[in-house]
Design a protein that fits this description.
Helix content is 0%, strand content 56%. By secondary structure, it is mainly β. The strands form two sheets. Strands 2, 4, 5, 6, 9, 10 and 11 form a seven-stranded mixed beta sheet that branches. Strands 1-3-8-7 form a four-stranded antiparallel beta sheet, with no helix packed on it. The N and C termini lie far apart (40 Å). The mean pLDDT is 95.
């Protein structure tokens, strides 16, 4: 059974850091492009970052997070991370993990990040 389980969200103050984790099971992330998305109520889901897991090579960052967020993978742990520095109130959202390749795609259930003073 395929599962993506996000963790690491929480309430932080502006300027602080968080690291999100997405633990995959049921498939090897080395076969996937792994992505992080985020979404707020009433808004479209936004692609935040993407990486070709097998090469640990990032392929995409949203302009709004460039220089502050870093996506990475640990193939041995079958896990993808999103390290977020200098968090801003506008980074508040539910963050979702996504895995996919030709003809298939999986989503996690999300983890809430709340940046507030």
């Amino acid at each position: 059974q395929v599962k993506l389980v996000e963790s690491g969200g929480g309430l932080v103050q502006p300027g602080e850091s968080l690291r999100l984790s997405c633990a995959a099971s049921g498939f090897p992330i080395s076969k996937a492009v792994m992505r992080w998305y985020r979404q707020n109520p009433g808004k479209e889901r936004e692609k935040v970052a993407g990486i070709i897991a097998n090469y640990n090579a990032s392929i995409h960052y949203a302009d709004s997070v460039k220089g502050r967020f870093t996506i990475s993978t640990d193939i041995s742990e079958n896990t993808v991370y999103l390290h977020m520095d200098n968090l801003l109130p506008e980074d508040t959202a539910v963050y979702y993990c996504n895995a996919g390749n030709s003809g298939w795609e999986y989503w996690g259930e999300g983890t809430l990040v709340n940046v507030s003073s």
